[in-house]
Design a protein that fits this description.
Radius of gyration of chain B: 14 Å
Number of helices of chain B: 0
Number of strands of chain B: 11
Largest sheet of chain A: 7 strands, mixed
Oligomer: heterodimer
Distance between the termini of chain B: 41 Å
Helix content of chain B: under 10%
Shape of chain B: globular
Order of helices and strands of chain B: EEEEEEEEEEE
Helix content of chain A: under 10%
Largest interface: A-B, 20 and 25 residues
Strand content of chain B: over 45%
C-alpha cells in the first residue's frame, strides 16, 4: 500500500516552541517537497529535496528547517522564528525533480496558540 | 514575475450543471500544466497537459491547454455533490530542475 503519510493530522503548540512535522513516503521517489497552504491562498513552497542529504529553500523558507537523511523521510521543523506558523502543511513527492507530477500526503494542520 | 491565476475563485452550482474553471499563466520556460482536486486534505492529481489543443478526459472531467493564449480550462459536466472541492491549477516551468507554481484555486460547491 504505497503512499505518503504525514503525522500528526492536527498539532497545537504554544508560541515560541519549535515543532517538527513528519513526512514519510514508500513510493521510492527521489524528490520531496513541503508546502504551506493558507485560507484562500495557493500552495507555497517552503523547502524541497531532490535527493538524500540535499535540500533547497523554496519561496518561503524563513523560520523553517528540514533534513533528508533517508530517502523515505523529509521532516519539517517550524521554528519560533516563523512569524505566522498557523497553517495547513502539505508534503509531496515526485519520482524526480525533473518529473512534473507531485503526489501529496494528507497534510498536517498546525495551530499555534 | 511568474504567476498562475485561476478564476473564478469560488462557484456555486446545482447538481447536473456544467462548469468551466479557468487557469491562466505567465511563466518562463513552460513545461506542463497540472490540475488537482482538493477536498478536505491532500490534493489528488487529475490531469497533466503539455500540448496545445489535445483534450484529456476522465469520466465527466475534461481539460485542454492553449499554449498560445497561455491558459487552460477544466470542464465538469453533469456535476454531482461529490465534485464539491477546491480545484488547483499548477504550472511546471523552468530549466533542468524545474519549479511548480500553484494558483489560488477555485472553490466549487455543488448543491443538491
Amino acid at each position: 500500500d504505497g503512499g505518503i503519510t504525514q503525522s500528526p493530522k492536527y498539532l497545537f503548540r504554544k508560541e515560541g516552541q519549535n515543532v517538527t512535522l513528519s513526512c514519510e513516503q514508500n513510493l521510492n521517489h527521489d524528490a520531496m517537497y513541503w508546502y504551506r497552504q493558507d485560507p484562500g491562498q495557493g500552495l507555497r513552497l517552503i523547502y524541497y529535496s531532490q535527493i538524500v542529504n540535499d535540500f533547497q529553500k523554496g519561496d518561503i523558507a524563513e523560520g523553517y528547517s528540514v533534513s533528508r537523511e533517508k530517502k523515505e523521510s523529509f521532516p519539517l521543523t517550524v521554528t519560533s522564528a516563523q512569524k505566522n506558523p498557523t497553517a495547513f502543511y502539505l508534503c509531496a513527492s515526485s519520482i524526480s525533480s525533473h518529473r512534473d507530477t507531485q503526489y501529496f500526503g494528507p497534510g498536517t494542520r498546525l495551530t499555534v496558540l | 514575475e511568474d504567476k498562475v491565476v485561476q478564476s473564478p475563485l469560488s462557484l456555486v452550482v446545482h447538481e447536473g450543471d456544467t462548469v468551466t474553471l479557468n487557469c491562466s499563466y505567465e511563466v518562463t520556460n513552460f513545461r506542463s500544466l497540472l490540475w488537482y482536486k482538493q477536498e478536505k486534505k491532500a490534493p489528488t492529481f487529475l490531469f497533466m497537459l503539455t500540448s496545445s489543443g489535445i483534450e484529456k478526459k476522465s469520466g465527466r472531467l475534461s481539460s485542454i491547454l492553449d499554449k498560445k493564449e497561455l491558459f487552460s480550462i477544466l470542464n465538469i459536466t453533469a456535476t454531482q455533490t461529490g465534485d464539491s472541492a477546491v480545484y488547483l491549477c499548477a504550472v511546471f516551468y523552468g530549466g533542468s530542475q524545474g519549479n511548480l507554481i500553484f494558483g489560488k484555486g477555485t472553490k466549487l460547491s455543488v448543491k443538491p
